[in-house]
Write a structure and sequence with these properties.
By secondary structure, this protein is α+β, with helices and mostly antiparallel strands. Helices cover 16% and strands 27% of the residues. The termini are far apart. The mean pLDDT is 85.
Length: 431
């Protein structure tokens, strides 16, 4: 017999597994949470609707004719009445699905077997991830374009670089994509479906610094400029911020043509320049001029970290740091940034080239089904469903999904505004 070595005694080794499991990806849902009702979303309304479109009736024109008249026998003008119009809002379905094998569930039952029960963990994580996924989709308009192909030579890995040196119309780069996600890939004009349900590799399928995405297979016929879109949306998804905070005169807003003045926000075009106090003040004044009597104090400036950095640089130029003594801490970075007395909301998913002024109380949700488990047999029925194999028999695997049927709407965009086409400080993704 030889000397006892590691190979001979390893059966006696005790295994140590750290009880705390770190999450190695980011979850951001600030805007999605901000426009939810409740304590953190005061003023947000939920309107319960059927499958028919909801109508928002509004006063579009003042009505009445004003002018001078000779009351000594002069003629009066004919009058007019208030002009009433309507927005229409149609809900869309959204889902977040997960699967587990029954053996994996059994192997993780009880503290003696695993750090955490698999089924309990997956259910809790599903709600977190669904809100984060919804937040990303609320950053784009109803076409649901989340990224644009910039190069196609290394398929199934594609560059989705955006910003000044990438594809125009994609300031986020890969920011709005997620590992293990499913996406539809459409041609540049959103007319031809290249690939339905293209799957992203689960482990590091999205390279955020490099602005690349790796699918499990190449996209047939892909060319530069093709669009990566929310799977199953059919180009009719959530109406996100660009649907409402938009100065375009083309297209439609909730059924009304955008060339109507009450379907556009007032904007300041930075033209690629850095954020300045002039841009901020001008954008606020344009809202005030457009809508006298608007609730200016309740406006919330919504920015990405790139513009938070730019705003801090403005503060550095006019701020003098005075220390009371050597015991005082020195912190040259700012926190809780405010613009014209309004606390800024900063989020990584926000468009890095914009400063958007939002009125929380003007948003609402048309909701046919709130976020919850898919229960086709109604409330109280099962939430876990077996997977059926090719032969029609169930297999040892279960599936569950969170679903909702809703749509974001806005009752008045004229009380909001935007500073667009802002420069992004060098060194950031897309810069």
């Amino acid at each position: 017999m030889g000397v006892a070595n590691v190979a001979q005694v390893q059966a006696m080794f005790l295994e140590r597994v750290l009880p705390d499991m770190p999450t190695l990806w980011g979850v951001e849902d600030a805007f999605c949470t901000w426009i939810q009702p409740g304590k953190s979303g005061a003023g947000i309304e939920i309107q319960k609707v059927s499958d028919r479109a909801m109508r928002i009736v509004f006063k579009a024109g003042r009505g009445g004719v004003s002018g001078q008249v000779d009351l000594n026998g002069g003629s009066f003008f004919r009058g007019t009445g208030t002009l009433f119009k309507q927005f229409t809002v149609t809900t869309v379905g959204f889902q977040h699905a997960r699967e587990m094998t029954t053996k994996a569930i059994e192997a993780c039952k009880g503290d003696q077997k695993a750090l955490e029960r698999l089924s309990r963990h997956e259910i809790a994580q599903a709600m977190i991830e669904m809100k984060a996924a919804k937040d990303r989709r609320l950053q784009v308009d109803a076409s649901q374009v989340l990224a644009i192909l910039n190069t196609v030579v290394n398929a199934p890995t594609y560059s989705v670089k955006g910003g000044a040196t990438g594809q125009a119309g994609n300031p986020w780069g890969a920011q709005l994509l997620e590992d293990n996600g499913l996406y539809d890939v459409w041609d540049t004009g959103l007319a031809v479906l290249r690939q339905a349900g293209a799957a992203v590799v689960q482990d590091a399928g999205v390279d955020y610094p490099g602005q690349n995405v790796t699918f499990t297979q190449a996209i047939p016929g892909a060319v530069i400029g093709d669009k990566i879109v929310t799977a199953g949306s059919g180009q009719a998804g959530f109406a996100g911020l660009p649907t409402f905070v938009n100065d375009s005169a083309t297209g439609f807003l909730q059924g009304q043509p955008r060339n109507l003045p009450y379907c556009q926000v007032r904007s300041v075009d930075a033209g690629g320049a850095a954020l300045s106090l002039d841009f901020i003040r001008q954008s606020l004044n344009l809202i005030k001029i457009r809508k006298p009597g608007a609730s200016m104090k309740t406006l919330t400036p919504y920015i990405a970290p790139q513009q938070e950095h730019a705003y801090e640089q403005l503060a550095f130029a006019v701020t003098e740091i005075i220390k009371g003594g050597p015991e005082d801490d020195t912190d040259l970075l700012f926190n809780n940034l405010r613009m014209a007395g309004r606390k800024a909301m900063c989020e990584t998913n926000a468009d890095p080239t914009k400063l958007q002024w939002l009125q929380r109380g003007k948003f609402g949700w048309a909701q046919m089904k709130s976020i919850g488990f898919h229960q086709p047999m109604g409330e109280g029925s099962d939430i876990m469903w077996p997977i059926v194999g090719a032969n029609g028999a169930p297999i040892a695997q279960v599936w569950f999904a969170l679903t909702e049927q809703s749509q974001l709407y806005c009752t008045d965009v004229t009380e909001m505004g935007i500073v667009k086409n802002l420069a992004v400080i060098a060194g950031y993704v897309g810069a």
